[in-house]
Specification:
Elements: H1 2-25, H2 30-52, H3 56-103, E1 107-117, E2 123-133, H4 136-150, E3 157-159
Parallel strand pairs: 2-3
Antiparallel strand pairs: 1-2
Helix pairs in contact: 1-2, 3-4
């Protein structure tokens, strides 16, 4: 593409120089007026010559290929965004559980949250695996917090060493 543009600019400059030399050498009078019209026609012809040699079929085909590539790239970007959104939600919810466990003076070794895609078109925390030790009342309070704050019901909260 840059070679075509370079050739066009060189042709345009060459035609301009040729016309300028011809007009400078031509005597005043009627002949110079005709030469101006001819030089104008030459300049217009050189100016629009890229359009005359333009292959619209190749251009159309190239546009179609670029559109397909752009759609594929957009699809990959959307997929990467989905994965990133899911992992951020899972990580943030797990960190939230560990913070709440620490606030309740529980010893937390790990918390894992799995997110699920909703019918509404977003990720939400679906289930949690929690490894904590401490008082039963504090663990019960943590289970309530997980249910109320994160929306993970108790039947999808897995406690103990087998939750990971």
């Amino acid at each position: 593409m840059t070679e075509v543009l370079r050739q066009w600019v060189l042709s345009l400059c060459g035609a301009a120089v040729l016309c300028a030399v011809a007009l400078a050498m031509c005597p005043k009078g009627r002949v110079k007026g005709v030469l101006r019209v001819v030089c104008g026609a030459v300049m217009i012809t050189v100016l629009i010559s890229p359009v005359a040699g333009f292959d619209f079929a190749v251009y159309s085909e190239s546009l179609g290929k670029y559109r397909i590539k752009a759609e594929a790239a957009a699809g990959r970007a959307a997929e990467a965004e989905d994965i990133l959104s899911r992992s951020i939600i899972e990580r943030e919810c797990a960190a939230y559980i560990l913070d709440k466990a620490a606030a309740l003076e529980l010893t937390a070794s790990s918390a894992d949250v799995s997110a699920k895609w909703s019918d509404g078109g977003f990720w939400y925390p679906y289930e949690a695996g929690i490894n904590v030790s401490g008082g039963q009342d504090a663990m019960e309070k943590l289970a309530e917090i997980i249910e109320s704050d994160l929306g993970i019901p108790r039947d999808r909260q897995y406690w103990g060493a087998n939750c990971e």
